[in-house]
Amino acid sequence: MYFRLYLPAGLALAGGAIGAAALKAVQPAPGGLGTLSLYSNLPAWAFAAGIALALAIAGVQTVRLRLWDRGAIPGCYVCGCLLAPPRAARHGLGMARRCLGCGKLHGVNHYRLMPRLVPLPVAVKGAADAVRSVRSSP
Fold this sequence. Notes:
The chain is 48% helix and 11% strand. The chain is mainly alpha-helical. It has a three-stranded antiparallel sheet, with no helix packed on it. Strands 4-5 form a two-stranded antiparallel sheet.
């Protein structure tokens, strides 16, 4: 789960490092990019942009992780791990969130498919044959 959570930050950092290395390698080349890269310190700025982007992504993911740890963000009902951000599901059936631990898909907006929730009546033995909702069971 943590690997999938922080992988985009690592890729942003690697992209900044590769971009800086490519701009450093272009410096001896003739032309506009070589001259711009040589005199404007462009490789350092590219690497700094990669670091800033990686820190921003890691910060957002850490906040999500802390909120999940406190119970403010829902988790997977199979393994208990954090769920990824919602995205469009297949065949236009609303939104789905993938578990970052086991990879199981979880539906997000069932209320759009069935706008009015009708509780299922459940027969209870005893209590004068009362009928009550499933959601009120202890």
